[in-house]
Structure formats: structure tokens, C-alpha cells
Design goal:
Blueprint: H1 3-17, E1 22-30, E2 34-40, E3 43-49, H2 55-67, E4 84-86, E5 89-95, H3 106-120, H4 130-142, H5 152-171, E6 177-179, E7 188-191, E8 194-197, E9 204-206, H6 208-212, H7 217-220, H8 228-246, H9 256-269, H10 276-284
Antiparallel strand pairs: 1-2, 2-3, 3-5, 4-5, 6-9, 7-8
């Protein structure tokens, strides 16, 4: 059995043991975690290998954020809100929502993200700092065993750019708070009641501009009080970090090497820095 087949079997058998009928599973997304729609119970399941996830952190934070009125996807109310384990997998169960619109309108997206940030300021939760993400990217770049296909000149260039961006952003001394960490369109559900954010395992502390660096440019036009100089640096940082992860051995991102090469080219070419959705459309287009 493949890992995906095993993960689906673990999630469906777990759901059935909790009196949630799950005769079938539709794969919604597959990256570091497998996202499934279990039917006919209509449950959104997230599955990862035990020890390769921060599922308990995500479950605890989701409950606290929902209590603070944040627009986040709630856990499945028919079962106990916790991390379940089955056959070596950690499984969390969430409310499933039908997609209301293909794309979240920018104004609504910005309003929901602002509401999320306001609620996050009321939640005292221990979390990593955004600079930990930079460190993770730097470690991939610095270790040829972890990024064997990255050319030496590119390794030096990317490592230097990550370090300089860390210094530039920290030197600004901007106010920091709890953030989503990756509120890009893939982590936003467009529901009939409005946008809801998912995938809270990336939450960290940092300036709100770090979150805004992950969203489409049109969304930023509706978010009040942004420091556009800091936003520009954060966008460049996101490009550099994603470039590092695309060169990591075992990366499962579709067309990962092509993305990695294009991101390095963009970093050398200079501003304006593209948003990730713009880059994705460019590389996945005809």
C-alpha cells in the first residue's frame, strides 16, 4: 500500500470508529499533510505521519481562535476536538465547507485577515517567531546534503540574501504579533458565510506585513495601515524562503525545480517582487 492509500485507510477507519460514516475519501490536497473530504459524513480530515506534524498545536490554537471570534475553520463538532492516531498517522477532523466562489474577493479576503489579526492579538499562545522560518530555509541552503541540486554560486547567493533580509526586517523594529504564517489563497476557504482560514500549524509571531506578503496584491490594497516598505521586504523574503524549499531534496511541490530556478532568477533580477499567486499563474499557465 502506498503512503496515500494507507493514510486514507487510517482516516476512514478512524472516522467509522467514531460513528462518522466514511465509505469514501476525496483527496483535496497533498503536500506535507494529506487533506481529505470523507463522505458521506462530510468531514474534512488532515492526515500526517506521527511526529512529522504539529497537530496538537493546531487543534489547541484553532479552539482558542474560534473562541476569540476569528474566521477560522472549526473542528468537527460531532467528535472530541483532539488529535487521533491510527496506523502511524496523526489525524485531525474539521468541519467541511462547500466552496462558495472559485476565488475569494480581495475586499472580503482583506477584511477576514484583518479580523483574524485582531483576534490573534487577544490570544496569548506560545508560538515560534517568523525568523525561525528563515533559519529553516537557511539550513536547507547551507547543507548540500539537503539541497544537492543547488549550484554552489546559487547556494552562496541565496544564503546571503536570506541573511540580509533577516537583518533588514529586524532592523525596522516593527510591532510583532501572532500571525497565520501562510495565509495564501490555498489556505483560505471561500464559504457562504465568508472566508475562513485553515492550516494553522504555520502560525508564528512577526509583523503583519509578513502575513500580507503571502496574499494577492489586490488584497493588500484593502488592508489598512500597512508599512509598504516593510511589505516589499517581506515579499522578497517569502520569494527567497520558497526558493530554498523548492531545492530541498524530496520536495513534493509540482514543478518544484522549475519554480526554484524561476525564483532565483527573480531574486537576481530585482524588484518589483511578485506575489506567489502571480508567480504560480505564470509558471502553471499555457
Amino acid at each position: 500500500m502506498t503512503d496515500i492509500t494507507r493514510a486514507i485507510a487510517a482516516a476512514t477507519s478512524l472516522a467509522a470508529s467514531l460513528d462518522l460514516p466514511a465509505d469514501d475519501a476525496i483527496v483535496l490536497h497533498n503536500s506535507n499533510k494529506l487533506a481529505l473530504r470523507l463522505t458521506p459524513c462530510d468531514v474534512f480530515a488532515r492526515v500526517a505521519f506521527v511526529g512529522q506534524e504539529v497537530a496538537q498545536f493546531e487543534v489547541d490554537l484553532a479552539q482558542r481562535l474560534a473562541g476569540a471570534g476569528c474566521p477560522v475553520c472549526p473542528l468537527e463538532p460531532r467528535v472530541e476536538p483532539r488529535v487521533y492516531t491510527r496506523d502511524g498517522f496523526a489525524v485531525t477532523l474539521w468541519t467541511y465547507y462547500e466552496t462558495a466562489t472559485p476565488d475569494t474577493p480581495p475586499a472580503g479576503y482583506a477584511k477576514a485577515l484583518e479580523q483574524l489579526h485582531v483576534g490573534m492579538r487577544r490570544v496569548a499562545a506560545p508560538s515560534p517567531r517568523f525568523t525561525d522560518r528563515i533559519t529553516e530555509a537557511e539550513e536547507v541552503v547551507a547543507d548540500p546534503a539537503r539541497s544537492p541540486e543547488l549550484a554552489d554560486a546559487d547556494r552562496v547567493f541565496l544564503g546571503s540574501r536570506l541573511a540580509s533580509l533577516r537583518r533588514a526586517i529586524e532592523d525596522r523594529g516593527a510591532a510583532e504579533q501572532l500571525l497565520h504564517g501562510e495565509p495564501h489563497p490555498g489556505n483560505v476557504l471561500s464559504t457562504k458565510s465568508g472566508p475562513l482560514f485553515i492550516d494553522l500549524e504555520t502560525c508564528c509571531r512577526g509583523p503583519v506585513e509578513f502575513d500580507l506578503a503571502h496574499v494577492p496584491e489586490a488584497v493588500c490594497e484593502y488592508y489598512p495601515g500597512l508599512d509598504h516598505g516593510l511589505l516589499d521586504e517581506c515579499r522578497q523574503l517569502v520569494v527567497a524562503m520558497v526558493a530554498a524549499w523548492r531545492w530541498e531534496i524530496g520536495d513534493q511541490f509540482p514543478n518544484g525545480r522549475r519554480f526554484g530556478e524561476e525564483l532565483l532568477r527573480l531574486l537576481r533580477e530585482g524588484p518589483p517582487w511578485p506575489t506567489l499567486d502571480t508567480l504560480t499563474r505564470r509558471l502553471e499557465g499555457p
